[in-house]
Specification:
- There is one protein chain.
- This protein is of the alpha+beta class.
- Among the domains are: 65 residues, Helix hairpin bin (Helix Hairpins, Orthogonal Bundle); 243 residues, DNA ligase/mRNA capping enzyme (D-amino Acid Aminotransferase, Chain A, domain 1), CATH 3.30.470; 87 residues, Orthogonal Bundle (DNA polymerase, domain 1); 76 residues, Rossmann fold (3-Layer(aba) Sandwich), CATH 3.40.50.
- 38% of the residues lie in helices and 20% in strands.
- It is built from 26 helices and 26 strands.
- The strands form 8 sheets. A 5-stranded mixed sheet has the order 2-13-10-3-9, with helices on both faces. Strands 16-15-14-17-18 form a 5-stranded antiparallel sheet, with no helix packed on it. The chain has a 4-stranded antiparallel sheet with strand order 5-4-7-8.
- Helix 1 packs antiparallel against helix 2 and helix 3 crosses helix 9.
- Bound molecules: 2-(butylsulfanyl)adenosine.
- 2-(butylsulfanyl)adenosine binds next to strand 3, strand 8 and strand 13.
- The site of 2-(butylsulfanyl)adenosine (IVH) has 14 residues, from strand 3, strand 8 and strand 13.
């Protein structure tokens, strides 16, 4: 290790140990109590390693409450990764009765249900814990994994084995492979006991039961997890060797019979009004419950219908989470900072006098944009009402005008960028003021680089936000491609404080490991405005390769014609996102960045067809289809969703480039045009046969 400890005298070591201990304690506090960590896990671990190495040489000079004297102050690194056979997705939210009505209507429309046809649904508590996938093989618990980013989690089997309410063996017959999903949580009593114990020992307290459950699951030593008395509620399944139930309610009964705990306050419902009544009833049980719930999850009961409904983006169409209203508190707005984001947006951020809301200390809140500040007439010095819901960043709801101090002035965003001094402009109807400096602006360039290496992006281990800032400031990095050229600057890296042979080699190896990257991750990592992980995946599945996407974007540059229609027709894309994508790929500055990057990394192609489709379906991937006329078995939405699922492009009009037309009842001019052009026309039944019923 080249941490310099060899050359250190005892006094300097004592000072450095005290400094590191204080720094680590600060990070512990921000992580646990404020839910607002400012460094990555890897950076945190590096600090702890440095502390431990120094402590080993100067054990007598270590502070009595130093980090190594505490148990599990922050989750450690070092769990093996587990790729989920079926991704662990999230839920859409509903906030009021209108949203619930829309959910039910959306389901009915998608399934093409006649008005008199009943739709059975379930309502169950949404447990505010940590989702876990338990894999049983031959009825025995074989593996437990965290959700992670939904695609890849961590293997926490040894820790989960210590949880009493997780059956190690299922009672009764079960599918050979059975992945049960549910929520690990910490009951209130246990949370209180743990925090009292930590307080006595002078350790940082956990902010809420969810953080403390998460911290307890990610302990390196299973004995620590065992001492935390976690619990588990089961509600779903992942990979299974055979379908374990025909309805969700029957599934919950099977879970209970195998020995799982199922949250007991669930109900059944047949329409939106009954769902809302269940929401109210479950909400009323909340104060008496010994665990946190943050809403009610509604699900379509029939599993075959769930399968037909499938997923839109990262959430199922067959379920929705109806959240409970968020918690509120009052505090004083002490200042407004202006941050510059990845896309140049100037974001005002409220600096608040720290206050506890929903068990978490809040000292920052988002102010969105200047219109919002003006609309709510928010001024520095005001007493404000803030609201925090789950993981959502706290928001300012309103100002207590009766408590406004004299002389409080209205706030305006600056007309020049606070970071680079370039003009900051609002274009057209945009509510956001943006710095026009582009990559000349340090803030934008750095934020882009941070996004590029972030978890959903290239996920380069050991290259944290702090490193990006420092490397950028010293001219080691400017654009993403430079990351892959860091190897050429090994000597410069070695000269840097805190970097030794081992750490530089580890970093370069982590970078090399990302020279091959899946297309969707690459696309997301580019940080194109409004293209999140879900859209990146949709685009990857639709176009298959970077070249195909670039070609399509070039053809769509006129914002009309088939390429544009195909792009905007992708489920979940829409014209706004398509516009951002085409603008990014055709801007010469960003095109150069992509070009340079593509010269450094191999972008893996994405399969454009999905499993489970009919025999010919594989050949359909990448082809263009038009639906016309009235379909009997499927709604338009379902037809479109299925076609896209097997990698087809759905467009609205027939042209020479159309590969297939599916004609329902009373199909008119589009069908005729297809026949004239010699395009294959299928009936709805033939289409279902081909696409795999
Ligand atoms: S069903 C496709 N049911 O909420 C996802 N989720 O916000 C289906 N959760 O990731 C999830 N209680 O961790 C479902 N009764 C419940 C739940 C529940 C808690 C969590 C789960 C999920 C998150 C989505």
């Amino acid at each position: 290790m080249t941490d310099g400890s060899d050359r250190m005298d005892e006094e300097a070591a004592a000072r450095e140990l005290a400094r590191l201990a204080a720094e680590i304690a600060g990070h512990d506090r921000r992580y646990h109590r404020e839910d607002a960590p400012v460094i990555s896990d890897a950076e945190y671990d590096a600090l702890v390693r440095r502390y431990t190495a120094l402590e080993a040489r100067f054990p007598d000079r270590a502070p009595p409450d130093g980090p190594s004297r505490r148990v599990g102050s922050r989750p450690a690194q070092g769990f093996e990764k587990v790729v989920h056979a079926r991704p662990m997705l999230s839920l859409r939210n509903a906030f009021d009765e209108a949203d619930v009505g829309e959910f039910v209507q959306g389901v009915r429309r998608f399934l093409n249900l006649a008005p008199e046809e009943p739709l059975a649904m379930t309502a169950e508590a949404k447990i505010d814990g940590l989702s876990i996938a338990l894999r049983y093989e031959g009825g025995r618990l074989a593996q437990a994994a965290t959700r992670g980013d939904g695609r890849e989690g961590e293997n926490v089997t040894r820790n989960i084995e210590t949880v009493e309410s997780v059956p190690k063996r299922l009672s009764g017959a079960a599918p050979e492979i059975l992945e049960v999903r549910g929520e690990i949580y910490m009951a209130h009593g246990e949370f209180q006991r743990l925090n009292e114990e930590r307080e006595r020992e002078g350790l940082p307290l956990y902010a809420n039961p969810r953080n403390s459950a998460a911290g307890s699951v990610r302990q390196i030593d299973p004995a620590v997890t065992a001492g935390r008395r976690l619990r588990f509620f089961a509600y779903g399944w992942g990979e299974v060797s055979e379908r374990p139930a025909e309805t969700h309610s029957a599934w919950l009964e099977r879970l209970a019979a195998w020995g799982f705990e199922v949250e007991p306050n669930g109900a059944r419902a047949g329409d939106a009004a009954e769902l809302v009544a269940a929401h109210r009833a479950i909400g009323e049980t909340r104060p008496a419950l010994d665990y946190d719930i943050d809403g009610v999850v509604y699900k379509v009961d029939r599993i075959d219908w769930q399968e037909r409904l499938g997923f839109a983006g990262r959430a199922p169409r067959w379920a929705v989470a109806h959240k409970f209203p968020a918690e509120r508190a009052e505090t004083v707005l002490e200042d407004i900072l202006v941050q510059v984001g990845r896309t140049g947006a100037l974001t005002p951020v409220a600096v608040l006098r720290p206050v506890t809301v929903g068990g978490v200390v809040v000292s920052r809140a988002t102010l969105h944009n200047e219109d919002e500040i003006e609309r709510k007439d928010i001024r520095v010095g005001d007493t404000v009402v803030i609201q925090r819901a789950g993981d959502v960043i706290p928001q300012i709801l309103e100002v207590r005008l009766d408590r406004r101090p004299e002389g409080a002035e209205s706030f305006r965003l600056p007309e020049t960028c606070p970071v680079c001094g370039s003009q900051a402009r609002r274009d057209g109807g945009d509510v956001v003021r943006r710095c026009t400096g582009g990559l000349v602006c340090r803030a934008q360039a750095v934020e882009r680089l941070k996004h590029f290496v972030s978890r959903g992006g290239l996920d380069i281990e050991g290259l944290g936000r702090k490193h990006i800032e420092a490397f950028y400031a010293d001219g080691l990095l400017e654009t993403p491609a430079d990351i892959f050229r860091l190897g050429e600057r090994r000597a410069e890296l070695l000269e840097r404080d805190g970097w030794g042979e081992q750490s530089v080699d580890n970093l370069l190896a982590a970078i090399e490991a990302r020279r091959r990257v899946p297309f969707d991750r690459f696309l997301y990592a580019l940080g194109i405005r409004h293209i999140g992980e879900g859209n990146a995946r949709l685009l990857a599945r639709h176009y298959g390769s970077l070249d195909a996407l670039r070609e399509a974007a070039a053809s769509a540059a006129s914002r009309e014609g088939e390429a544009w229609e195909a792009l905007t027709g992708i489920d979940g894309m829409g014209a706004g996102r398509a516009e951002d994508l085409v603008a990014f790929l055709s801007d010469p500055r960003s095109a150069r960045i992509v070009e340079a990057l593509a010269a450094e990394v191999a972008v893996e192609e994405t399969a454009t067809e999905a499993a489970g489709a009919g025999q010919d379906a594989g050949e359909l991937a990448g082809r263009t289809v038009v639906f016309t006329g009235t379909l009997a078995a499927l709604s338009r939405r379902e037809a479109k969703a299925r076609a896209e699922q097997i990698g087809m492009r759905v467009v609205g009009s027939v042209s020479a480039k159309t590969d297939l037309v599916v004609a329902g009842e009373a199909a008119g001019s589009k069908k005729r045009k297809a026949e004239e052009l010699g395009i294959r026309v299928l009936t709805e039944d033939e289409w279902l046969e081909l696409a795999g019923r």
